[in-house]
């Protein structure tokens, strides 16, 4: 016979699974319902009481979404912009973080402070002048207009510097005795050692940029450059498009980020720990 | 002949100069980008906010703080209050819910990794996509939320068109999306609490409830502080859900600061007024961030 202690333990475990499941259902429900709706027929989306699942998925809604808007082109645009910003930021941030960790020069700490201080400036504050600038440069509706303003970011520099600080300075001394230059040490030692931090930054940046809405809304005006988040809103505003096709667009749009999230989950968690500095 | 000491001094200043130039070379991409896309536009915003501008946004007449006065006369005060209210109704439930999720996600059970991934899944859904998804859930007739309300005996709500509910409805979208990040943050905070602390408390006879209030919560306070401030700043910058779900309506009930400055600049072409609003937003975020920096200063600079 089971002892009361084991019984209590089992009951406790079962209760925990119930709570976890309820919480997971609540959190995931909007995503689940978007996927389910994308497989309904248009009349099914208007039923009351609403349907929650279907045994006969209606794939035509995806074809309809693709007919209404070039969703794949929008996803490609978002993808290119996200990848461009991500790699650009990895390059600029790691160079800057290197200077702040391994080089000694006058004014270094002041510059570090100035760069960190940009975290205090919400991007929306500079929206109007930036828009005017991009206009003047003739970068409206171009990839450079979507990418270049975001190529440097204080958070990335900060995150990488925190990581670089954990690399022993003796390594640098040893390398310079062997005649290794700074740029050599940076490329051959620091960057390979910092791969986890770079991974974290890459996942975060990709998700953030893919998520952008206000800036691409302002500076794109053709399908050739429009990012998917703006494209979706178009689909949604078109009264003649039924919910099933709109949701098909939503689902196609979140497939890349969901893959990045699943593959990069570990990196993301590591980075959060580094970001939330314990006071 | 030059005295030897002088040679040494010259070469030292030379070396210092070279080192400085090397440092600047590494920093140059960042310095140029920040100069062009952050510092110059910030100064420009300040200038625009104190000048009358033409339709192309060229300043022509210095007016001092007149435009700041004007925005407050035109109801910007209401936008500020709405924004703060929005931040409050987003952040408070967000922290409480994500704390609950994080505690659950920290249980050591088989398959917990799957639940962690599910709890963080909103991170993978962009703001605009989430807004479109929720728009369907909010739909007044066949929408799921009203169906569930009627199921428990309530009556349907006009989520997005009733001024009483619209702000809350928009806040729910932001809240839902932020849950993923906050839960991950808090989870890693919980996991970094040394196991021995809980162990010795257990030996002293502390129950799970007491341990949560007396150990977990106090130990999490730096992380809680961090996510409270970052979520508040994020809420103050909200734009996507408002533009997609309510367009500032009904009757201005969801006209938050960023939406207001967006309309002012890109519909009314009043770049001066829009800039004044932007600077006020900047000052609010500045204060919040300084609060944050004070806590972090030590670990940033003296590690």
Model description:
The complex is a heterodimer of chains A (279) and B (303). Chain A is mostly helical. Chain A has 2 domains: 4-62, no CATH class; 71-275, MetI-like fold (Orthogonal Bundle), CATH 1.10.3720.10. Helix content of chain A is 71%, strand content 0%. Chain A contains 14 helices and no strands. The longest helix of chain A is centred in the N-terminal third of the chain and has 35 residues, at 4-38. Chain A is flat. Chain A starts with a helix and ends with a helix. By secondary structure, chain B is mostly helical. Chain B folds into 2 domains: 4-49; 75-301, MetI-like (MetI-like fold, Orthogonal Bundle), CATH 1.10.3720.10. Chain B has helices at residues 4-49, 66-73, 76-105, 112-119, 127-137, 144-151, 163-191, 195-203, 208-236, 240-245, 257-266, 271-301, and strands at 51-53, 59-62. In chain B, strands 1-2 form a two-stranded antiparallel ribbon. In chain B, strand 1 and strand 2 (59-62) form a beta hairpin. In chain B, helix 11 packs across helix 12 (271-301). Chain B starts with a helix and ends with a helix. Residues 298-303 of chain B have low confidence and may be disordered. Classes of the chains: A mainly alpha (279), B mainly alpha (303). At the A-B interface, helix 1, helix 3, helix 4, helix 5 and helix 7 of A face helix 1, helix 3, helix 4, helix 5 and helix 7 of B.
Can you tell me the CATH topology of the largest domain in chain B? Answer: MetI-like fold
> In whole angstroms, how far apart are the ends of chain A?
51 Å
Structural class of chain A: mainly alpha
Task: Round the Cα radius of gyration of chain A to an integer and report it.
Answer: 24 Å
For the biggest sheet of chain A, the summary is: none
The order of strands across the largest sheet of chain B is: 1-2
The chain-level mean pLDDT of chain B equals 88
CATH architecture of the largest domain in chain A: Orthogonal Bundle
Query: Over the alpha carbons, how many angstroms does the gyration radius of chain B reach?
Result: 26 Å
Structural class of chain B: mainly alpha
């Amino acid at each position: 016979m089971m002892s009361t202690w084991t019984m209590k333990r089992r009951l406790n475990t079962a209760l925990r699974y119930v709570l976890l499941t309820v919480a997971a259902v609540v959190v995931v429900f909007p995503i689940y319902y978007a996927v389910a709706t994308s497989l309904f027929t248009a009349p099914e989306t208007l039923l009351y009481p609403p349907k929650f699942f279907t045994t006969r998925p209606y794939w035509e809604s995806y074809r309809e979404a693709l007919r209404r808007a070039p969703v794949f082109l929008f996803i490609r645009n978002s993808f290119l912009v996200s990848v461009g910003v991500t790699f650009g930021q990895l390059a600029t941030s790691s160079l800057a973080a290197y200077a702040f960790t391994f080089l000694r020069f006058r004014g270094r700490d002041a510059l570090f402070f100035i760069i960190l201080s940009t975290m205090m400036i919400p991007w929306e504050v500079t929206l109007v002048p930036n828009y005017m600038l991009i206009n003047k440069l003739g970068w409206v509706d171009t990839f450079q207009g979507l990418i270049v303003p975001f190529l440097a970011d204080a958070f990335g520099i900060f995150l990488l510097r925190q990581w670089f600080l954990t690399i022993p300075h003796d390594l640098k001394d040893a390398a310079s005795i062997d005649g290794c230059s700074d740029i050599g040490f940076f490329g051959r030692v620091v960057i390979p050692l910092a791969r986890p931090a770079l991974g974290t930054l890459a996942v975060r940046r990709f998700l953030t940029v893919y998520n952008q809405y206000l800036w691409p809304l302002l500076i794109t005006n053709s399908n050739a450059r429009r990012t998917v988040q703006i494209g979706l809103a178009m689909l949604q505003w078109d009264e003649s498009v039924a919910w099933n096709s709109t949701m098909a667009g939503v689902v196609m749009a979140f497939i890349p980020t969901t893959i990045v999230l699943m593959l990069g989950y570990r990196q993301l968690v590591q980075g959060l720990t580094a970001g939330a500095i314990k006071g | 002949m030059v005295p030897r000491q002088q040679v040494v001094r010259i070469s030292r200043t030379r070396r210092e100069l070279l080192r400085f130039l090397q440092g600047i070379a590494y920093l140059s991409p960042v310095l140029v980008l920040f100069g062009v896309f952050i510092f110059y536009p910030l100064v420009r915003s300040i200038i625009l906010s104190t000048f009358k501008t033409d339709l192309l946004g060229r300043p022509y007449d210095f007016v001092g703080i007149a435009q700041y006065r004007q925005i407050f006369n035109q109801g910007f005060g209401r936008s500020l209050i709405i924004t703060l209210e929005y931040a409050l109704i987003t952040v408070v439930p967000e922290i409480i819910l994500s704390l609950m999720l994080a505690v659950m996600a920290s249980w050591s059970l088989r398959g917990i990794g799957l639940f962690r991934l599910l709890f963080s899944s909103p991170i993978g859904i962009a703001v605009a996509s989430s807004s479109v998804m929720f728009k369907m859930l909010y739909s007044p007739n066949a929408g799921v939320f009203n169906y569930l309300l009627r199921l428990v005996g309530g009556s349907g709500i006009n989520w997005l068109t009733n001024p009483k509910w619209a702000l809350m409805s928009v806040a729910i979208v932001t809240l839902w999306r932020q849950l993923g990040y906050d839960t991950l943050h808090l989870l890693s905070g919980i996991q970094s609490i040394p196991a021995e602390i809980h162990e010795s408390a257990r030996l002293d006879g502390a129950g799970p409830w007491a341990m949560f209030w007396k150990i977990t919560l106090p130990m999490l306070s730096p992380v809680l502080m961090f996510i409270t401030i970052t979520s508040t700043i994020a809420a103050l910058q909200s734009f996507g859900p408002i533009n997609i779900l309510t367009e500032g309506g009904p009757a201005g009930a969801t006209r938050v600061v960023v939406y207001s400055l967006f309309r002012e600049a890109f519909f009314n072409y009043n770049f001066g007024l829009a800039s004044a609003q932007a600077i006020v937003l900047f000052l609010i975020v500045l204060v919040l961030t300084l609060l944050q920096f004070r806590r972090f200063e030590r670990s940033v600079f003296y590690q």
